[in-house]
Amino acid sequence: MSARNWALVAAMVAAVYLPKGLPLLLVTDRLPPGWRRWLQYMAPAVLSALVAPAVLAPHGRLAISDWQQAAYLAAFVVAVLSRRMLLALAAGVAVLLLVTALGH
Fold it and tell me: pTM of the prediction?
């Protein structure tokens, strides 16, 4: 792995863990409810920011015509409705297998 890749990994680690870890280090036992909500949504927000470009612009341009993106949409809808990651993953994999089996 090149030095640039290591720097990118270090930057992603810092982006994910510093916003979560720093408040925990600064505030001992009690966190205000606002901070708790902020920490609860930080990891999904960072993950979404990392995954969204690969899903919405797989070839460097915005493209919604790929049938494999139906799996992402199915996983997203199931995640929003059920709020369960395992169900969303299962739905996405099922749709991807179906799209692949149909030859798209």
Answer: 0.54
